[in-house]
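Section 3.1 - Work completed
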Amino acid sequence: MAKEYEAIVIGGGPGGYVAAIRLGQLGVKTLCVEKEYMGGVCLNWGCIPSKALIAAANLAHKVRHAEHMGIMIKGLEVDVPKMQEWKEGIVKKLTSGVRSLVKGNKGDIVMGTARLTGPNTVEVTDAEGKKETYKANKGIIVATGAKMIQIPGFEPDGKVVITAREAVSLQSAPESMVIIGGGYIGLELGMVYQKLGTKITVVELMDRILPGSDPDLVRVVQKRLEKDGAELYVNSKATKLDKSGERARVTIETEGKEQVVEADKVLVAVGFKPSSKDIGLEEVGVALDDRGHVVVDDQMRTNVSSIFAIGDVSGMPYLAHKASKEGEIAAEVIAGHKSARDYRGMPAVVFTDPEIATVGLTETEAKSQGKKVKIGKFPFSASGRAMAVSETDGFIKVLIDEEDNQLLGVAIVGPEASDLISESALALEMCAFAEDVALTIHPHPTLGEGVMEAFKNALGEAIHIMNR
């Protein structure tokens, strides 16, 4: 006989565990099923561990190149195993915290592989192969995330050919690394090891790295990569892999010409695809799109009314905070509350050096919608705070509607862009006009002043740069 709950969440990542916690807060008896690690990809080998390594590598790089600030360090050493131990401590603390929060909100956790067997039932198989059936009287939330795409001929072996999962746990910085895929995952992790002394080669199929991002922003990151010795191959593809012992030879084809690059590690980072197969979705009649994403409405409900889907499995963009927000929405709907996906902007961050952060429309998107756009820019090279922390590369770019000065979008490339973007996300949600931010007093000296100055520049009123 099936054990009964009011709600079942399949997946314990940043979408699933948030949904389970919110359901518990709303008094819904909930079961969360996770097949591997609570916290999912994000907490265990994605967002959190990678950002810990990025912070450590950036610090080492900055100290090593601080002569202009009067700081000379001779013989600086980086103990990579110690760095990994520190990172693992962060991961352990956060994942155990997730478990405590789910249980603290009266949710149950079961470890095992879940499969939908009906619109209200889930079968869970544990590590020993034992099966148990659970019933959800109010709703099931599918939060199974996404999995890495593999390239035929470049299948990971965990030693020479690796994925992001292995890349965040290397015990030493390799002498050389070929990165297949010039998206955010490859570049974030590549720059970690570049700062630790690794020679990196990036192979990107599209005409530039970080395809889909504003070219103005990408140019700043590309300049830093190349300055630090990276080789970038765009409009290129890796066609062949030869492994010999603990090294690899990668054949790269660019405009019909081939060359071979040798490396200690080959990082395959060409993206993700939704984890929607083999979990019973199609068998119970849940509709998928042509890419395998679960089709949902603004309440995160599928065409089967008792089944919801959130996060990566329900569509792009693949962002942890998007999954968390959707988890809250689905939980509230199941609990009988009026809730729906109605945000005006979804902020996104690339943790390269310098960082890239965006929210709202890009210039291309705004113009394609027929909007007349005014642009305001403020370079970090004109910021006293940026000079004081020796981080002057990049700028803040603001897009406003020419007709009424309403905010359309913001893009930042530079120091602390990941934190600076939140003000603009709030402004976008509040339907702010350029004057709202420009007239808000920002403390001095801060990087945030640059946001104010960019809005002022869009209005022709910037003080610390010449206006257009």
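Second construct:
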Amino acid sequence: MSGTRERSAPDNRIPRSVWKVAVVVSIGSFMAQMDSTLVNVSLSAIGHALRSPVATTQWIMSGYLLAMALMLPLNGWLVDRVGAKRLYLFAFSTFTLASVLCGAAQTMEELIGARIVQGLVAGLLAPMAQMMIGRVAGKNMERVMGYATLPILLGPILGPVLAGAVLARAAWPWLFLINVPVGILGVTLAALLLAPDAAQPQKRRFDFAGFALISPGLAALVFGFQSAMHAEGAEFLLAGAALLAGFVWHSVRRPTTALIDVRLFADRMFAVPAVTQFFANGIMYGRQLAVPLYLIAGCGLSAAHAGWLLAATGAGMMASFACMGFLTERLGCRALAAGGALLALVSTLPFLWMTGHAFSTGLALASLFIAGVGQGTISIPSISAAYARMPKARLPVANTALNIAQRIGGPVATTLISIAVSLAVPSSSAAEPRQFLLAFAALCGLHLLCFAAAMLLPARVRRANER
């Protein structure tokens, strides 16, 4: 009898083919995260070396984000047209080559141009990890995403430390050149491990009119959010909103040929996870802006001290991601994501308290770790809910739409936090801890909105192939 029970028990092992995909996409995502972290903490050093003011140097990041926004809508069409493996190999190889161009740049203009090239291919590469895992993982989606994201979380932990070590021993170009061996490894493994594309990719016609509306619209919206404190910011926001409204009208009229079928957002099972992802990404980027500013400008901590404190957030996310499969099976999508959003909110309250009282390293460290734990339990349940009822043939289009919703959340949140900081901290005076009260209050508001969205997620999801 016991032998019969053992034979009839479900096999919960993850197939080797799924692990192969997870390994490959983890390397690509890790390199992108590492590159972003290295650049963020090194902008002042690069600007000083190339004798460029801050207004010019910040385009190393802004140009990258704008270029990414331009290319994100193309991902779904190119996957259908070219094939996932071919597109991944092209994007990963080009990203690695662009790292060489960044390291070889002699002027700020050349460096910004190389970063724009990186951003263009990153707009193709960024959404593919979720999509490629979603295609093969099936009922193991949460478990595989949890394991696959662990290497990605090393980027925010190792990035600041590695950037400091590189700049202490070598010139700034090595911040980009260290990507090259990782890129070569990733491209080689992708060529060897990823399954071949279909012999005849889908011949979906390219939506020129939609591309002319949505890509400039997204770029204008991102630039407008980043420039919200300046006069031109409102103009770009209005232009971006008008172009995106035009795309919605275009997509409703031609849903089968549009780059993104906006009817996806009429389905509550997709729209709610997309909104949750918007706010989840927003609170992550909002925290990454508010907390370092408070620690360094408000409390007078050194960059090295602040960096080690911020690493606690990455450690907390790693701790929660490792348990994603188990927790999702036990608690379900809604309870896990909403609980994570609530935990992240609770972890922000000590910073709100410290703005009016004494700073505590221990309290900050514990709060940042708990913030990471909470943050880590929001994304995967909501992504899983978005993909649950999606047929495999619709995954590329759905993945592109979900990533656009997710990545717009970052600029919106950082603009809100920047406005709060600017209102409270005059540029002509040194900052004080109490002046960051408004910034952390705004961050708490974003957490509440994320919690409200997560509470609308389905309690549990069943995949299309399980019904």
